Please model this.
Amino acid sequence: MRKIFKYEISSEGATDVRMPVGSTLLSVGFQNGAAFLWAKVNTRAHDCIRRVISVPTGGEIAMSVWQAPLIGVIRLKSTLGEHFAGHVFDMGEKNL
Model:
């Protein structure tokens, strides 16, 4: 069955997400103060680990991240007026 699922991710650094193999990463964003990733998944496929890495604006980027596809940018404005932008990259799938 094909569905769109939402997964919580870290707003900074690496997150390993368990999801079906071959999922298509659609977008990222903040919702209720937490960072999320949305993906098209085939629920009949077996699971894998999908690593994503969020790098803040101005943060140092490793070469492996530099060459990875960008999923999107998560933006947050705090109640103090501070802004945060995390650039989320897809580091690929690993077998369980």
Summary: The chain has one domain: 2-95. The mean pLDDT is 94. DSSP finds one helix and seven strands in the chain. The first strand starts at residue 2 and ends at 9.
